[in-house]
Amino acid sequence: MNYLIGVTLLWSFSFSLIGVYLAGQVDAYFSVLTRIALASLVFLPFLRRRWLRPDLVAKLMALGATQLGIMYLFYYHSFLLLTVPEVLVFTIFTPIYVTLIHDLLESRFKPVYLWGALLAVLGAAVIRFDGLTESYVMGFLVVQGANLCFAIGQVGYKVLLAREKEQPPQLAVFGCFYLGALVIALPAWLLLGQPQYPTSNLQWGILLWLGVGASGLGYFLWNKGATLVSSGVLAIMNNALIPAGLLVNLTLWGKDTDLLRLTIGGLLMLASLWVCQRQPARSAD
Q: Model-level pTM?
């Protein structure tokens, strides 16, 4: 679970950076393309021909196209439709998608993991539910599209590697994941992008950080961590970003945060982790 905790801390900075410095100022399609292209450049040198079976490459590219490519298109556009608190509110359903999709792929149902995910959703709602604007339905649907893509990608990656007879070194194949995302991001920018590029070194620096750090290193470690924990723990960790992101806002940007609600919600998330960790199942089920 250390991988997931580390990436949560890494990603906790990304949310505010996008909302404060990029959303509405830099074209969303260009931002997505830049992040994915940079991540691809980081991981392509590690590809090893020995492990690149055509079927495995195709599956990894499909997962990358979904979890990173399509998800980012939904995610960035949600900031144009919703306030940052509303985006945070609507991401709390991801744990439920993770548990249900994993059980569907494994042809089973584990109620305890669903209850754990629901407890994590409750904790996230306590932390971040601040009320909603009047016109939020489209924004809600866009964020759910992002949530579903993110859940499908990470669960699909977890199940794909679990079913491999000979486990490939993940570093030797993960570049295919970014290539799949690039297949989505490049034509999307060419067809729909606007000439709205970064206008400051700060914005370019943020895109560089998001591409190499948050997208490149972050998604590799997150998906690697997903293969090492239960589906219940994976589901819950999807909402750990909310308290982490709020703490970053509070510390670095001085945003107002209700510390009581943050504490109560955090305790509920810890309780949900305890519920799932007590299961005597395999660590990567």
A: 0.82
Torsion angle of the four alpha carbons 53, 58, 59, 63, in this order, in degrees rounded to the nearest 10: 140
How confident is the prediction along the chain (285 residues), in pLDDT tens digits per residue?
789 989 988 887 787 788 788 988 999 899 999 999 999 999 999 999 999 999 999 999 999 999 999 998 898 888 788 776 667 667 777 887 888 898 888 877 767 666 666 676 676 667 656 665 665 678 878 988 999 999 999 999 999 999 998 889 999 999 999 999 999 999 999 999 999 999 999 999 999 999 999 999 999 999 999 999 887 788 778 877 766 666 666 666 555 556 677 677 667 766 766 665 555 444 455
